Every structure is written in C-alpha cells, then in structure tokens.
C-alpha cells in the first residue's frame, strides 16, 4: 500500500517523504512543489576559514598601515633630529626603510595559515561533549584502516556508519550534536533497554556508534611487510567490501567482547570463553548505515559471507541512496569517470591532494560562497551534477547547495584518495542494467605477459576474468534492509536505486523504501534536514526492537 507521511506542519511545506511497501514507486502528484523547500534547513555555523581574497585584503590593509606608520616615523625623525636620520639612512638604508616593522607582514601570513578549519573527526566529537576513540584496524591484505567510535560501553545496540566515495567519516558528525546523524544515534538511536544478565538487571540507552574510514583516506598507512609504493593497487571495490568491512566488523565485535568481559567482572560473573561468545551473539545487534558506495559494499559483503557460509554479524541495514545500479547516469558523471578511467592511468595511479593544496582549496571555496554571484553559479553547477531542487536568483543565495555550506565538506571530498582502479570499475558499471562488479586484471611483467599471450594464441584459451553479477546473489541476503531514496537525486537516479528494492522483493526479502523529494545525493549526510533525521531515528529504533 502506498502511504504518504507528513510529520508536523512543516513537512507539507517543503520536502515530503513516502513509505512504500510491496509495490512499484511512483512520484506523488499531490504534493505542492515550492522553490523555498530548504528554508528551514539547519546548518552548523563554522566560519573558521578565510578566503584568498580576504587574506589579500588583509595584506593590503597591513601594507597601507605599515606605509603610513613609516611615513609618520620618517617625518617625525626629520623634524626632531635631521642629522641622525641622514646618518642612519646613509649607513644602512635597507634596514632603515624595509626591515623595521616587517613583523606585520609575517603576522599577515601567519593569520592566513591560522584561519583554516582544520577540525578533525576527533575535534568534532570531543568539542560536542562526547568521548572519542580511534582504533587502527589491520586488514588481511596489509592495510591499516581507522575505526572511530563515540563510545557507549553499556549498550550492545551498535550503529555502524560507513561513508561513500569522495567522503570520510566526518560527514556523520559535521553538523554537531543537534543535527549530526551519528550523535542522534548515540543519544536517541535506541530506547532504554533493560537486560537481565545472570540475575543482574542492567539498563542502557542509545547506541554505541562506530564510524568506518575506508582505505585511501588520510592517513594512508600500511603494515611493515607491505610496500607503501604499491598502496593504490588494492584500493577498489573488493578491497572496501571484502577487506575493510570485514576488518571493521571483526574489531567492533572485539571491542564489545571486551565491554562484556568488563561488565561480567564488575558483576562478579565467571563464564567460559564459549559461553562468553554465545552471550555476545545473543546481546549484540549491529545496524549498518551506509551512504552511496558504503551501501554497495554492504551488498558485496553480505553475499560474499553467505556464499562462504560464514556469519556476517549484521542484523539490519539502512542504506542512503546506495550505489550499484547505474543504468541511467548523467553525461557529466560519465565524462568525469571517463577521464579517471582512461586519461588518469597515464598520469598517475590516483588522485590524492597534499595538505597545503587542500587548505588552498578550502580558501578558494570560502571566496566562492561569500560572493553572491559565484555562490549562485556554483550552486547551480552542483545541482546539475548531484541533483536537488533547483533554486534561482535570491533564493539560491539564501539557500545554496549543501556542498557550499562548509569548508569541511571540501576537506572531506579532497582527503578521499581516488584510485584509478576505482574509476575504472565505476566507469564499467555505467550503462549496465544489472549490478555488475567489474573484475580488475592483475598487473603482469613481460614474462608473464608473453606466457599468457602464448596460452591464448596457441591453445586458444580465453583468460578474461568474468565480472560478478551481484544481482544474482540478492537471494542470499537474510537481513531487513531500509532504502532511503530521493526523487531528485541526479548522481544515482531513483530509478536505479529502486532496482535494489525490486531484486530483493523478487527474492521475498524483508525490504522497505522511504522516498523523499527535493534532496540531492549528498543531502542525506550533509543537509541534516529534520525530515531525514526523524525518519532515520524511527527506522533505527525499530531495528533494535
């Protein structure tokens, strides 16, 4: 049955959502579309970064002040003691005219370097009043990825957030404690849970929150036995899903096992390792929250584990505009990925920016959003690529695209290292009607290449690696999945995202869709709209019941 839900009076004024079960989704025609749909969106004020033009303005002002001060000092010296001034000028003119008060210029340069928003995930969490942990997690193939935690040790309701491409885990905490999805999950993700442990009654509220950072994000670390020069060779979809995700889930269970041991120790409970493992399996509930690429890796992870007859330890999933099906892809995205898949391999193995260049980009970003004309233009360009409701003229100035709202968003985008392998895989996925995961050919030396050539030519054997059709494995998925879809998403079209629903439903799986209007692809993480937050918390609480 198709149901249109409206929460409060505001939902009928801007963005509405539709909960759809057991039927094909069609856009509602009953909702009045208004151009001011983002008027009540809440953003965190983080004016911490100055633009290049602002720094140049400061430099000019200090130069004028220095010149005026020098003129006044010189004029005073000539009037009071002209002979001493003439002697000083002739003896050391450079020191007299230039080096004095040069600290003003140094302060201008220092000011330019200081006025940059360098807040890390740790800063965003701790300054919001929460405890913070960061765990370095080794993977099976020698990478070291990082798992961030907003701890709630007494809760065994786990919310594990996984970011998408060109992003990192800071996206979940960027908006602070009032609007960040990770903070909301920490406080309100699960209602008060009462548990009886061997006769002891315990209570917990909220969730234990974990934020995963895929390989390719800073800092890029590897174990000692792996060559750092070959870092980007394994940065691709399989590395994310089969290595990083496995390592994150394994570490989450290790952390919660330690929490359970601590609780048992405080209560004076003694049990064997096998009993401890059974208790952990009984009490631990993990809800996976993935955006875009993060959602695609979950499908890959679940199907792989089920094919291997291994436990995956995930109980529920909330996927925000997940990737996978890309039959209808915009020309902009095809062109950019063509550059990354065809041109980039001749230049480099990846696109990764040094810190000083990212800081410069942040400053240019600040200039663009402070000038109304450029902010309007850039908002239109972002909407053309990422989607969202179109706004023009003064409305575009007051309601720019979310990507122009914060300098930290630019920091998240450019700290994600984009490998050529990932570009190749996404480019091959475009235009496919199925959820195809392209397989990358391993690099060979001249000897291996010659042997394979003979093998193909003489023996007529085709060594081409067949791609994986992930759609055929949807019947193996055994957890409830909630899909969040925006009808105005231009990066991953809603007609493509809904194919996940149809494939799961055709295999009689537990899946539901929450449909929104007016949001772009990144609005699920960066917009922090009250409708998304309310619906997210409702689904999250249901997953822990």
TrEMBL record:
GO process annotations (BP): lipid catabolic process
Protein name as annotated: Uncharacterized protein
Gene3D superfamilies: alpha/beta hydrolase (3.40.50.1820)
Residue ranges of every copy of the AB hydrolase-1 domain listed in the record: 285-524
Domain Partial AB-hydrolase lipase as annotated: residue spans: 122-175
UniProt keywords, alphabetically: Lipid degradation, Lipid metabolism
PANTHER family the UniProt entry points to: LYSOSOMAL ACID LIPASE-RELATED
Matching InterPro entries: AB_hydrolase_1, AB_hydrolase_fold, AB_hydrolase_lipase
Originating species: Halteria grandinella
